[in-house]
Amino acid sequence: MILIVDDAPENIISLKKVLEKNGFEVDTATSGEEALKKILNRSYVLIILDVQMPGMDGFEVAETISGFSRAKETAIIFLSAASANVNLITRGYSSGGLDYISKPVDMNILLLKVKTFYRIYEQSRALNEMQKALRAEIEFRKEAERKKDEFISIASHELKTPMTSIKGYIQLLERSIKKQDHDTSLQRLEKVQNQIEKLNLLIADLLDISKIESGKLKFHIQSFNFATMLENLLEVMQQSNNQVKIRYIPGFTKEVEGDEMRLEQVIVNFISNAIKYAPDATELIVRTEDQGDVLRFSVQDFGIGMSHEHTQRIFDKFYRIEETSERFQGLGIGLYICQEIIERHGGKIGVVSTLGEGSTFFFTIPIHSQEN
Ligand code: ADP
């Protein structure tokens, strides 16, 4: 859009006509004051500015708008100015460009200048946009790099913790074997096994992540009895977590077509989190519901819960709730893997949670396989 500023309406009319005929959008003002008001409210590519006007003259207008951020990219063509005067005001004026045309205006020259300014304007806008996109891309790299570094450091720490325990227990084990203390040896052996199982799970998660990234997470879909799988699993989990009571409310008895091991992995993840993030709780509730062709599974805990803003993001890769990340160890990839598994079954995963009261993690899956 071009703004023509001239106190003589007849000049405005003829300029406007020519410019509009050449496809430019035109706005007008008949005084410097009116022009300033308009410039404050919208951005113009170019202002054609009469120098001699009663009240505020063209140079004063130009000087004033040099301070407007809206007019940073705006070019100005003065009408009837001597070049010396133009040079004077270019100092301290960082606009898109300044030029002048003597009166009476030669329309061909004016059009040529207008077109040149427009071309420069378009080019600089394209350049700006390109620069913006490049900057955003660089930031995004940087961000990915930072996340990766952070992940490597957390992952190494997480792997090191069970490793250190294993070393310690093996030393103790050696001592008790030398003393031929059979019972203590067996206890320590069991501790080593627990830690190895932890390591195993961590490494399995890391492998799953890289399989998801490369699209190589494979599923073996079969028909199986969900309730039987769940009951066996709950028995094992109850045994190894006897500080909490796992209450089971069954409501689903049908066969399900799906990858039994992968669904088991999701359930283990939900329950382990329900135990981990509810350190003071004495029970948690596991429910299954029959919703026709859909199975709904949920785990309700009475732990720390979370505020609403986190409920979507915790399924993102590497996302951990910052406020509690120091207190609870973890890699922030378990739920991401669960989400992938459930979505690949054509199902949905989610959480309903209240900060300080607890969370219910759930998934629903169609009982007939959606994998193809
Ligand atoms: P991890 O527990 O290893 O950090 P997850 O992917 O399993 O990774 O969970 C991601 C984040 O979601 C956790 O870091 C935690 O902040 C939050 N979270 C998961 N489960 C619960 C829960 N039952 N209660 C409260 N917060 C949870």
From TrEMBL:
Main location as per UniProt: membrane
Its membrane topology: Multi-pass membrane protein
Keywords (A to Z) from UniProt: ATP-binding, Cell membrane, Coiled coil, Kinase, Membrane, Nucleotide-binding, Phosphoprotein, Transferase, Two-component regulatory system
Stretches assigned to the Histidine kinase domain: 154-369
UniProt EC number: 2.7.13.3
Gene3D superfamilies, sorted: 1.10.287.130, 3.40.50.2300, Histidine kinase-like ATPase, C-terminal domain
Domain Response regulatory: 1-118
Recorded GO CC terms: membrane raft; plasma membrane
Reaction equations catalysed: ATP + protein L-histidine = ADP + protein N-phospho-L-histidine
GO molecular function: ATP binding; histidine phosphotransfer kinase activity; phosphorelay sensor kinase activity
Localization in the cell: Cell membrane; Membrane raft
Modified residues (4-aspartylphosphate): D50
Classification via Pfam families: HATPase_c, HisKA, Response_reg
Coiled coil segments of this chain: 182-209
Protein name: histidine kinase
Taxonomic source organism: Planobacterium oryzisoli
Taxonomic lineage: Bacteria, Pseudomonadati, Bacteroidota, Flavobacteriia, Flavobacteriales
